Amino acid sequence: MKVRVEGLTKRYNNVTAVDNLTAEFESGKLIALLGPSGCGKTTMLNMLSGILPVSEGKIYFDDVDVTDLPPEKREVGLVFQNYALYPHMTVLENICFPLKIKKVKKKERIEKAIKYAKMVHIDDYLDRKPKELSGGQQQRVAIARALVKDPKLLLLDEPLSNLDAKLRIEMREEIRRIQKESKVTTFFVTHDQDEASAISDYVLLMKKGVKQQFDNPRVLYNEPHNLFVADFIGIPTINQLHGQVEEKGIKIDNCDYLIEGLFDTSNLVGKRVVLAFRAEALTNCEKGKLHCTVKESFLSGKDTLITAKVGDKEIRVFVDSNSEYKEESELRFDFKKSLVFLFDEESGERYV
Predict the structure, then answer these.
(1) Roughly how many angstroms between the first and final C-alpha of the chain, as a whole number?
(2) Is it the case that residue 303 has pLDDT exceeding 90?
(3) Banded model confidence at residue 127, pLDDT cuts 50, 70, 90
(4) Is this model's pTM higher than 0.85 or not?
(5) What 3-state DSSP class applies to 323?
(6) I want to staple 306 with a disulfide (CB 3.0 to 4.6 A). Which of 3, 290, 297, 351 is the partner?
């Protein structure tokens, strides 16, 4: 099912939790709602489900206006952060419960429940109670219970936050598998950009209720619309050097040289800017534009990551793992053609 929101807004007295959001989400995709705490992700999810009324704007499911439709008529499956399983019921009874409420015949609801239990790999535990299951198993039961209704939309509100690090990785891959197998349009709330990037078809990144960028994860990384997007997406965090544009180049704060010829900045002379670049966007070069002093180096998987000082700022750079980088040694780097950006210092607007 395709989902479209137009001017979607939610206000609580003087606080605007979601602010004039317009976007269209393709049918059958997994969409991450991403951003820091308080950015409006869960509020957005709750408006899609019908739990929260909309202050302004419209919600469309397959071009049908559902803005004022109650939750029970939206054909939505919900999985909450705490899973909300019924402790006195078995796994099978928990999964069957939505169909029991709908007065589906017992034989049919058991058949459907077993089908979805198999899909989420929980069919060996149908007679157990929730307290006898691990966190990951409880999550699978909650997803099966949401899917058994054959929803047109599946909404997951930070479903991995109660799991340990290893299980989080395993379960996010399972969620992706289940979503692909069920083909249901899915919204997944998270504040973890690595999680969002790993499994989503598209990411809606929000800040203080405002859409910052809606794209596939690779585009967000390669072509951020503003400094907030560039800074929020990517591990390690993008490097940022503040400075001012002069006629011949960019003067980085607390450095005694100009970075020349990197961009055409002729129309930005006098502007305060942020030169931002990914850790893999530099190459070691004897006559490179960027001068730095090595502070530390350590293995990061198959790569070597160094931390270095440029003026009073610290940067992180992936370098050739076959070379040795001694502390306090001087290095020079040149910039590659991609993953290097220039932003306005005050507004965060991207120039280049």
Answers:
(1) 36
(2) no
(3) very high
(4) yes
(5) coil
(6) 297
**In the prediction, which pLDDT does 11 show?**
97
Read off φ and ψ for residue 258, nearest 5 degrees. -100, 145
Contact 293, 330 (CB under 8 A): yes
Please answer whether residues 130 and 138 qualify as being in contact, where contact means their C-beta atoms are separated by less than 8 angstroms: yes
DSSP 259-303: E-SSS--GGGTT-EEEEEE-TTSEEE-TT-SEEEEEEEEEEETTE
What is the rounded distance in angstroms from the CA atom of residue 224 to the CA atom of residue 218? 10
Residue 47 has pLDDT above 90, yes or no: yes
Q: Distance between CA atoms of 280 and 283, rounded to whole angstroms? A: 8
In this prediction, residue 136 carries a pLDDT of 92
Cβ neighbors of 224 (< 8 A, separation 6 or more) are 213, 230, 233, 341, 350
Residue 71 has pLDDT above 90, yes or no: yes
Where does the pLDDT of residue 163 fall: very low under 50, low under 70, confident under 90, or very high at 90 and above? Answer: confident
Integer Cα distance of 160 and 120 in angstroms: 15
Closest CA to 143 of 111, 202, 186: 186
Q: Which residues contact 204 (CB under 8 A, 6 or more apart)?
A: 23, 31, 32, 33, 34, 211, 214
Position 302 scores a pLDDT of 76
- pLDDT of 53 strictly over 80: yes
pLDDT tens digit sequence for 179-217: 999 999 999 999 999 999 999 999 999 999 999 999 999
Q: Is the dihedral of CA 237, 242, 247, 248 positive or negative?
A: negative
How far apart are the C-alpha atoms of 352 and 343, rounded to whole Å?
7
Using alpha carbons only, what angle is made at residue 330 by residues 325 and 336, rounded to the nearest 5 degrees? 80
Q: Which residues pair with 208 in a beta bridge?
A: none
Task: For residue 179, give the amino acid letter.
Answer: Q
Angle, CA 284 vertex, CA 279 and CA 290 arms, to 5°: 75
Q: Is 5 left (phi over 0), alpha (psi -120 to 50) or beta?
A: beta
Q: For strands 258-259 and 272-277, give the pairing.
A: unpaired
Residue 144 host element (H or E)? helix 135-147
